[in-house]
Amino acid sequence: MKNFNFKTLSALTLVLFMAFSCSDDDNGATPPTIPDPVDPTPPTEEAMSIVETAVATEDLSTLVAALEKADLVETLQGDGPFTVFAPTNEAFQAFLDANDDFASLDDIPVEVLTQVLLNHVVAGENTSSTLATGYVSSSSTAGVDGKALSLYVDTTDGVKINGVSVTTADVAASNGVVHIVDQVIGLPNIVDHAIYNGALTSLVGALTADGNTTFTDLLSSTDQKFTVFAPVNDAFTAFENLNGNDINMILANHVIAGSALVASDLSNSYAKTAAMNVDGDALSIYINTDDGVKLNGISTVAIPDIVATNGIIHAVDTVIDLPTVVTFATADTENFSSLIGALTAEGQPDFVSVLSTPTGTDPAPFTVFAPVNSAFEALAEVPTGETLTAILQHHVIGGNNIVAGDLTDGLISPATLEGDVLTFTAAGDGFSITDGAGNSDINIIVTDVQAMNGVVHAIDKMMIPNLDN
Predict the structure, then answer these.
(1) Exposure check for the chain: N or C terminus, fewer CB within 10 A?
(2) What angle (nearest 5°) sits at the alpha carbon of residue 288, between those of residues 205 and 345?
(3) Residues near 418 by Cβ (< 8 Å), separated by ≥ 6?
(4) pTM (2 decimals)?
(5) Helix %, strand %, coil % for the chain, to 5?
(6) Contacts of 121 (CB under 8 A, 6+ apart)
(7) 205 Cβ contact list (under 8 Å, min separation 6)
(8) What is residue 131's three-state secondary structure?
């Protein structure tokens, strides 16, 4: 056997290399590709949901525990979008410390905790730049009659929600936005809402003047519900008749007790307020909804439907003064415009001045049987001069505040200002009246519209006195 020397090995290697190269070309092999340069920016991480954001935030661990206890995790994992005002751990601890009944989350009844948490949630994605001073509805149904509670947003200096400050705003989540707050937002009653809104500071001052707690106690009560017409600061500034003697009565005249009425519940009608005359009869308020909501013809609802746990607040632009019998005739033009026209007709005595006389001054108080517009329209001719004066006086009894409960079959004494007496007859649930001329088919269609200086009953026909006397 011959040995291969180095030159022989090299030549063989060259031949083999060339053979394999020719074979690859024949098979059409593709030369290797050079990869594109690698992008140094890592792929964007998918945004976390609101709950995942809370879980990832150490200072929101109590909130996460509360959401789990209230079984709201799945809710806030939903599509939303939601706006969540998220209390810190310190905020929750302060909330527990302020409530003697709650030492820990475990002590809070689930239904209470659920409503408190939902009061931190608003539908939609509301960033700090889109929030504006005003009211929004929370997701809590702890409002009166199961309505969604209102939250007052104040953006005059940062963002506050019912007086609670946003400390970290606009934490983006896949299903909404989170704003971290420094306190737990409680479930507000009527007094709370008055305190939160800077436009109602004069009302709060009036409610608490000289340490008065009558109204703060009443309007914080959970024993009944209320509708409150709350005058804004400018309304108090413009009102000239507010004084120490009248303050409680005037404030009470802005409150309807026993009902929580939103704007859509209101209609052209009379309601009873918490204010009372000297006889203990509840004063009336006339509500007109022809164009917005107007009260006693002077005060307009500027912000409706602020929902609290124990009632509804409507902010109004004018303080509602204590009514006289003339107030209602003037305000209720739907029924009494013709009567006002007659009272103020040329040549007539100053009926408006007389019927505005306060109780305790002769001839007040008054019982007024007020003909509605259709009663005037039914007349063949509207009387004038002394005849009209006699007819108008025949509709007023002086010196008495005679409410429907005082009426019985027979004569009511004393006589009218004109001099004739009226006879009343029970008719169904009400009464019919026989006037001085013997007409007996006059019906009382609205009773007990109560003023400070008397009461008004609407009637469907004119009453004619005995003009032969």
Answers:
(1) N
(2) 105
(3) 390, 391, 393, 394, 436, 465
(4) 0.87
(5) 30, 25, 45
(6) 76, 82, 83, 84, 85, 138, 139, 140
(7) none
(8) coil
